[in-house]
Amino acid sequence: CFCNLKGGLDDCSCDVESIDSFNNGKIHPLLEELLGRNYFRYFKVNLNKDCPFWYDDSKCALKDCAVDICTEEVLPEGMRNGHEVKKYMTDSLQEKEECDEMMELSTVDTTLSQESKDAFVEWTEYDDSQLSFCAMDDEDENDMQYVDLLLNPERYTGYKGESPHRIWRSIYEENCFKPVQSTRPSYSPNIVSKGSPLEGLCLEKRVFYRVISGLHSSINIHLCARHLLPADGHHGDVCLTRDGWGRTKWGPKLEEFRKRFSPESVGPQGTTRLKNLYFVYLLELRALVKAAPYFLNQTFYTGDRGEDDEVRQLLMEVLDVARQFPYQFDENTMFQGDPKEARRLKEEFRQHFWNVTRIMDCVGCDKCRLWGKLQVHGLGTALKVLFSGDIIGRTDIPHNRQFHMTRREIVALVNAFGRLSKSIRALEDFKNMMTTS
Ligand code: FAD
């Protein structure tokens, strides 16, 4: 069996085979089409922030680490500097805005009543549920730049050694949770084998570790799937290889994949790490489904109404397909039990994740930093969606209490899920290569 990758996934009621068939046969092709559209291909990011944790002089000088920044002219009109972002007024949006205004007035009206005290309680609960999991780049910073994700694909860059090891080490050793005597119930006490990094951890802490490990697997699968290979004949780029000037091309490198994931190279950890990819996939899939009511009211503005309507239509198709997948991650099993303890744990979870987003500014290769930031931001957005209670898409509450996502959050969330989907698709190719090799 391919890397022993089969059967059930722990902490959720789903198996590898169901996800493979759903992803590769249904949602992946749709996502590829969606992510090629202007709204999703341009991501605004600051790649020049200093590492907040340690002095870092390990800037990657390899040509494949470089990122091409977009000039103003190539951007769609609606994303250029100084362009006022307008909405296309649909009937439902018009109605929503009128309704929001009325709601805001009514909250003001009740300031001195008992209802206002109740509203205050709700308000603080709301504030708690709107917690952001990401240290965001400030949109107004001068160093924010648009990057065309299609022209800067995530692939092998040659970034290796102490710099990435320090990042991964710092994430796992300083930000993932350590086993402590926990009073919280372990929802699946029998799933964790002795010696595993999950031993002794409650569900929430296991989820934290597994989403990080799944993301790590995805990044490493991408670099195996788009590795630098020698090219035959006249195809490929001319560049300096280890054997002098030659032609190269990008493609899957089975040897690299085996080195990182096969049981012969890394033991049972390889399978566990691949299963963590499926786990984080399920979590982000659920976040997309949960965010669907919010997307319904978005116009995906780029300044070209025809294109924006098509993008909206395509996203709705993706969400329809996503909704039909029967085994969704269940966020309601998390942060349960004693409310005080659950709240403390949620805050701890949020702070640890927040740190991970800041560590992305320490990645010493620009291309890896770009994709690292986008994917961690997407994962943080998924967590925000999952833990925002039931306010998503609700228009019967005052505007300033409604759930909100920025364009960057939407782009990051959908692209991050697209990356996981592509990794799972790439596993199919590696499986075929292994059978024929
Ligand atoms: P690493 O992947 O560096 O792993 C370090 C250690 O972590 C391993 O020895 C193992 O003990 C453990 N480990 C490995 N995988 C997992 C897992 N899934 N779960 C739990 N533990 C694990 N390189 C590129 O070529 N292109 C990229 O786009 C790219 N993006 C990156 C983005 C970020 C944010 C970071 C930190 C690194 C990125 N890298 C990228 C580098 C890449 O991830 C590896 O660090 C590098 O290839 C060196 O690999 P390695 O075999 O030494 O092990």
TrEMBL record:
The keyword Zinc-finger does not apply. Its cofactor is FAD. InterPro entries: Ero1, ERO1-like_sf. One of its GO terms (cellular component) is endoplasmic reticulum membrane. Keywords: Disulfide bond, Electron transport, Endoplasmic reticulum, FAD, Flavoprotein, Glycoprotein, Membrane, Oxidoreductase, Redox-active center, Signal, Transport. FAD binds at residues 155, 157, 168, 213, 216, 260. One of its GO terms (biological process) is protein folding in endoplasmic reticulum. It is found in: Endoplasmic reticulum membrane. It holds the Pfam family ERO1. It is a peripheral membrane protein. SUPFAM superfamilies: ERO1-like. GO terms for molecular function: FAD binding; gamma-glutamylcyclotransferase activity; protein-disulfide reductase activity; thiol oxidase activity. Disulfide bonds join 60-65, 365-368. The active site is at 365 (nucleophile), 368. Belongs to the EROs family. May function both as a monomer and a homodimer. This is ERO1-like protein beta. It comes from Branchiostoma floridae. The gene is LOC118429165.
